[in-house]
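Exercise: predict the fold of this chain.
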Amino acid sequence: MGPDAAPAAEGTDPKRQPPRFDSRDLFLGGERLLINHRGEQYLLRITRQGKLILTK
C-alpha cells in the first residue's frame, strides 16, 4: 500500500470478487425461484422483457 492509499473497508477488498452465477443455472429452465434469507422467503422471477425482479 502506497503512502496515499487508505486501507480498504472491511468487505470491500477490490481484489476479492463476489461469487458469480449464471441465471440459467439458478432457474434451471424455469422463470421463478425461491430464496430463503434470514428466515424470510423471497421470489426471484424473470419478466417477459428478460429482466429480474425480486419480491418478498
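Check your answer against the key: The longest helix spans residues 23-27.
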